[in-house]
Amino acid sequence: MQLPDGPFRFIALDVETASREAGSICQIGLGCVRPDGGIETFATYVNPQQPFAPFNTDLHGIGPGTVAGAPTFPEAWAVLFDLLNRHHLVQHSSFDQKAIEAACRVHGLERPELSWSDSVKIARRAWPEFKGNGGHGLGHLKTALGLDFRHHDAGEDARAAAEVVLRAEKRLRLEFHQIAVTRYKAQIKLPL
């Protein structure tokens, strides 16, 4: 796996799962936001070592054949952890953090103490008019903000979550650290 090379302002993270079990991660995607606002996208399939539910496969198109030969979660996590631990992460809802923590539990890995924000909360602050009028899910934001991505692909959804945050910064005229809505653990020095 060749990861994007940082440092980044923040990294949006999205996962897809094989079933209703949060720890059944079968794809991890990253939208890494550079200091200039550009986004580097990364995605990897993950062998969840668990059965796939037909509903999930129908939703994202990932099945046992797709992940044949893909790294297991512990193998992928060993490569991803250092990059993720050094950056502030964005998820679109709280599911992705729960899935990462559940996958760590399932595989006997230490619970990660990562720095997270929720782009749904950021979007609610930037576009309060969407409440009751389509909402703040990626599906509605895709249409309302004119985003171009393939929903339920982890790399595409991560890039879309990053774009939501970048557009919210412009709309609110605030920087990411002002709208992150979290305890801000990650400390990364960006080049001037």
Summarize the SSE layout with pairings:
Elements: E1 10-17, E2 25-33, E3 39-45, H1 54-60, H2 64-67, H3 73-85, E4 88-91, H4 95-106, E5 115-118, H5 119-126, H6 138-145, H7 154-172, H8 176-179
Parallel strand pairs: 1-4, 4-5
Antiparallel strand pairs: 1-2, 2-3
Helix pairs in contact: 5-7, 6-7
**What is the CATH topology classification name?**
Nucleotidyltransferase, domain 5
Radius of gyration: 16 Å
Q: How can the largest sheet be summarized?
A: 5 strands, mixed
Mean pLDDT reading: 92
CATH hierarchy, class: Alpha Beta
- Classify the helix fraction into a percent range: 25-40%
Number of alpha- plus pi-helical segments: 8
SSE pattern, N- to C-terminal: EEEHHHEHEHHHH
User: What class would the helix/strand composition place it in?
Assistant: alpha/beta
